[in-house]
């Protein structure tokens, strides 16, 4: 289970990874220098390597070393940034958020959802359906402008088992208006996965932080 705390071993892991990278870099430099010395020892005395050739080879190993150091620095910065995000994201725990989806979570006989309209609509209808796909209730939100709009459904008479869903039908002049259904979820914990911040929801699912559209 994800938690809002940061793994105390992260720093030591990062240090170990950095040490391993540095060790590999040192080995590469050592091999290069050994090959260069062997080349100098076995060169043709009548046609020795000139300064330009030696400088070029030294520049190559320095370039590789420099790139590796930059990569290591960027990797460490990314890990630290993710850790900071997780710490800041712990403030989300217990808050409701909006995400793409059409599930309705019933709490105290009510359920909330939202819709994001691509354009103005003169009619926005909400159909509430049982887990089996049967329409159990319908209501109209009326005319709405483009953008995000929330709604609350009275679920006191809902007797079906399982989580209900909803479908939005928006029209203007009889033509459909593109829309995106948004469901409400409660944040239970935050963490990180593969260097990215993740959010664990009340139903046990884990989603990337980028999936959150609005914090309520």
Describe this structure as you would to a colleague.
By secondary structure, this protein is α+β, with helices and mostly antiparallel strands. The chain folds into 2 domains: 10-92; 96-215, Immunoglobulin-like. It contains 2 helices and 11 strands. Strands 1, 2, 5, 8, 9, 10 and 11 form a 7-stranded antiparallel sheet that branches. A 4-stranded antiparallel sheet has the order 4-3-6-7, with no helix packed on it. Helix 1 (10-41) packs antiparallel against helix 2 (51-89). The longest helix is centred in the N-terminal third of the chain and has 39 residues, at 51-89. The chain is elongated.
Overall pLDDT metric? 79
Query: And the CATH topology of the largest domain?
Result: Immunoglobulin-like
**Estimated radius of gyration:** 30 Å
Distance between the termini: 24 Å
SS summary, helix count: 2
CATH class of the largest domain: Mainly Beta
Strand content: 35-45%
CATH architecture of the largest domain: Sandwich
């Amino acid at each position: 289970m994800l938690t809002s705390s940061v793994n105390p071993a992260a720093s030591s892991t990062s240090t170990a990874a950095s040490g391993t990278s540095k060790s590999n870099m040192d080995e590469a430099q050592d091999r290069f220098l050994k090959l260069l010395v062997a080349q100098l020892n076995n060169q043709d005395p009548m046609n020795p390597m000139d300064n330009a050739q030696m400088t070029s080879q030294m520049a190559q190993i320095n370039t590789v070393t420099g790139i590796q150091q930059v990569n290591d620095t960027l990797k460490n910065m990314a890990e630290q940034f993710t850790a900071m995000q997780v710490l800041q994201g712990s403030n989300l725990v217990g808050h409701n958020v909006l995400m793409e989806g059409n599930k309705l979570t019933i709490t105290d006989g009510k359920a909330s959802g939202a819709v994001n309209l691509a354009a103005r609509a003169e009619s926005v209808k909400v159909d509430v359906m049982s887990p089996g796909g049967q329409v159990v209730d319908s209501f109209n939100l009326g005319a709405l402008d483009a953008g995000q709009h929330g709604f609350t459904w009275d679920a006191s008479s809902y007797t079906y088992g399982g989580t209900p869903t909803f479908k939005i039908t928006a029209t203007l002049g009889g033509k459909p208006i593109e829309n995106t259904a948004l469901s409400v979820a409660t944040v239970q914990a935050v963490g990180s996965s593969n260097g990215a911040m993740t959010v664990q929801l009340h139903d046990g699912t884990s989603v990337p932080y980028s999936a959150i559209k609005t914090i309520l």
